[in-house]
Design a protein that fits this description.
The complex is a heterodimer of chains A (about 100) and B (about 325).
Chain A (H helix, E strand, L loop, with lengths): L1 H5 L4 H4 L10 H22 L7 H9 L10 H24 L1
Helix pairs in contact in A: 3-5
Chain B lengths: L1 E4 L11 H13 L33 E3 L6 H8 L7 E4 L4 H10 L1 H6 L8 H7 L14 H10 L9 H8 L9 H13 L7 H4 L7 E2 L4 H5 L4 H7 L15 H27 L11 H15 L1 H8 L6 H6 L7
Parallel strand pairs in B: 1-2, 1-3, 3-4
Helix pairs in contact in B: 1-14, 13-14
Classes of the chains: A mainly alpha (about 100), B mainly alpha (about 325).
Chain lengths: ~100, ~325
Amino acid sequence: MGKRRSRPIYFHAYFSSPELDLNDPIVLERVQSEKYLLALGYLIFFLPMAGKSEALLQLCRTKAFSRRCCEYPKRTKEARRVIDDYLARMEIEQDDE
Amino acid sequence: MVLILGSDCRSVIGSEKSPMLWYLAGTFFSKIHTREMLTPLLVPELKGFSIPRYYESAPTIQIYDSFHNTFLPTMLSFLNDLVGIHLLILWKFSFYLCLIHFQGSEEAKSLYKHHLYLSRKTFLSRLMEVDAYHPKTSSNAPFALHLALVCHYPLNLNSPWDHRLRSKTRKHPFIPLASLMSEFRLFDWKYPVGEDPQDVYPLRAGLVYIPVNCETAIRCRGYINLFSHLCPFGRLDQLEPDVSPALADSWRVFGKEVYAGAARCSFEYLCGITNVDRSLVSSRQRFSAYTSSLRRNSPWKWRCMFGNGGSSWVSKHYRLVRPLE
């Protein structure tokens, strides 16, 4: 048990461990939660470096995070800030053009 | 030119290099090229060296996907006639062996005579070697993967990301940084005694080593697969500053596009666009719905990822693969 607890939180997002029973709703929930957190991290990292993408802009303007984001309020807040920054940056670039 | 080599200086079947390549090509060239560009055109004159050639895909960048039993020496003799390599992707833990090949090869010297020589320190700062089958290093694979994804330089201790890694030594999931450092020492130990790495290892700028064991990466599910295929993109900034301005610019633009694609994928996941239908009961159904949704929303990417996966782990286990129409 101790070993399991010491595992990094993204462990199951990276590995398909034999001990991972995705039929177990608890395990599945944990894996999905880990993935969500990971995806939040990716968004926060990638978006500031992203160039112009209409699809991405459309997403940023029209879509909201799913309810799971409530599990990670700090990261969600940061992600939203990054999104706002991206939209502002794109507007400026568009004006420059 | 982008060249992808596999493990131990050769390519092995099913290591998921091609999906990564296709993703690369699809992302880079999606605006101007259709899927047909990915149809392999074999080069008959190269015995045992079947290369899908994507010459049409770009005026300046060619992508080569090495097939089974493609050995580096063979590759070198072929490459000798080419102008240069823009990006050499060494899949898995093959780098050291590749260097061995480079080391004594006149062809390699000739090939690399115009290329940059990296200092030992720079060299070490760019590379990680993680062998997921090795008992001492296997546990580092996911961390190496993450580092490759989020860091411009995997172990640039001046970067905020690494600072973050260091500052949370106890709790942060990526902390096996110390372990990674030990990997570097291990790598260091492998240098031939008495030889100056600057002479021995003529590395070209723009080289990207994928420090992840791909089987490990492939065992991730859903978007993690996609992210694993983004490994090289997260490190495009490795280009040396004195690379020709035109090339550097093209990579910078490329990087922005890729980052936008990665951000969009993340966003889609976070919005639930590609997420599981919660009304479904079993995980099998959930995953199936999840992937179906993903395919609907990003058919190109999924086909890039799994289009040829007859031997891929994903296809065996999830039967996601549908042949390209």
